[in-house]
């Protein structure tokens, strides 16, 4: 029977693991990666599993989780696009929104039109997509790439608190919108 006099409310789980047990760092990283993939593939566990299986080897070999996951999700549930490739940004955001049965209104008949693309920039497009996705209870997330690129994913708004916590644990410095 536990000794309740030794209860420490700041250490609720002290008795959960024997002191000789060590948590496997690789297993912990995989668990966090799995949670991340579930968050950015809301309602699509099959897609999350395919991406997880693709990322698993890279995670186990010690590659940076941000790079491994970025490659696994690119154009499936996330994006990494050059800063000046506004046409590619429109295309990938349209594709990602379509996964949820949504369409982004770019305020033009043809978002691939050269004149439209010449008169816009990535931050304006990201902000427009963010605003429209919020209307349907989704959040467009972006993260620091360390390059002249924009990158991110879409998650359900109900997960707005969880996404930055899980993403940060993997090395993504995520924020909603631009």
Question: What's the helix and strand layout?
Answer:
Elements: H1 25-40, H2 45-60, H3 65-73, E1 78-82, H4 86-98, H5 114-118, H6 122-135, E2 138-143, E3 149-156, H7 162-170, E4 174-176
Antiparallel strand pairs: 1-3, 2-3, 2-4
Helix pairs in contact: 1-2, 1-7, 2-3, 4-6
Provide structural commentary.
The chain is an alpha+beta fold and 178 residues long. The chain has 7 helices and 4 strands. It has a 4-stranded antiparallel sheet with strand order 1-3-2-4, with helices on both faces. Mean pLDDT is 88; it is low at 7-23.
Number of helices: 7
- What's the story with the biggest beta sheet? 4 strands, antiparallel
DSSP helix fraction: 40-55%
The N- to C-terminal Cα distance equals 53 Å
Taking strands numbered 1, 2, ... along the chain, how are they ordered across the largest sheet? 1-3-2-4
* Strand/helix succession: HHHEHHHEEHE
Rg over alpha carbons: 20 Å
Model regions low in confidence, pLDDT < 50 over at least 5 residues: 7-23
Percentage of residues in strands: 5-15%
How would you state the average pLDDT, rounded? 88
Strands, count? 4
Alpha-beta content class:
alpha+beta
Principal-axes geometry comes out as globular
């Amino acid at each position: 029977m536990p000794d309740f006099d030794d209860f420490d409310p700041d250490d609720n789980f002290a008795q959960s693991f024997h002191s000789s047990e060590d948590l496997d760092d690789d297993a912990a990283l995989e668990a966090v990666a799995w949670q991340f993939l579930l968050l950015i593939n809301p309602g699509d566990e099959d897609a999350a599993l395919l991406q997880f299986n693709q990322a698993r080897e890279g995670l186990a070999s010690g590659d940076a989780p941000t790079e491994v996951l970025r490659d696994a999700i690119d154009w499936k549930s996330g994006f990494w696009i050059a800063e000046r490739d506004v046409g590619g940004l429109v295309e990938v955001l349209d594709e990602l929104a379509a996964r949820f049965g949504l369409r982004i209104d770019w305020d033009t008949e043809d978002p691939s039109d050269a004149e439209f693309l010449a008169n816009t920039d990535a931050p304006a497009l990201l902000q427009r997509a963010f605003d429209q996705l919020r209307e349907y209870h989704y959040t467009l997330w972006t993260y620091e790439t360390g390059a002249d690129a924009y990158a991110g994913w879409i998650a359900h708004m109900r997960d707005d608190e969880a996404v930055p916590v899980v993403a940060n644990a993997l090395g993504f410095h995520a924020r909603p919108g631009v």
